[in-house]
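My current task is to audit a protein record that another person submitted. Alongside the sequence sits a line of tokens, each denoting a local backbone shape. Where you disagree with what is written, explain briefly why. This is what I was given:
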Amino acid sequence: METSDDHGARRVALEAKVVGSAETDVELRAGVMKCASNGPAIAMPYDDLARGIGEAAHRVTDVQVANVRAALGTDKGAFEVVLAASIGAGLSRWDAASRAIKGADDAAR
């Protein structure tokens, strides 16, 4: 069975991959990840898309994606931003679930 330490190491490795080599700027991808997990604001149109993905990805509009694509000039760049936001939102939810499980474990003792 995996431990929380295993998950922590995998989280770090995943974050490193997301902010590693890609078409878009590393600071942009890192900022998008944080923004999607209720982090600090970033430049528009990235903030709008990242927050949308973090809050309710199913409500993200074609216009929000098109605005990011237009700002970056490529589909690949827009994909990288969407992926970074999705991973940031997912990791935020994972962290919240881990804290809840730990709290339940602590309460059971």
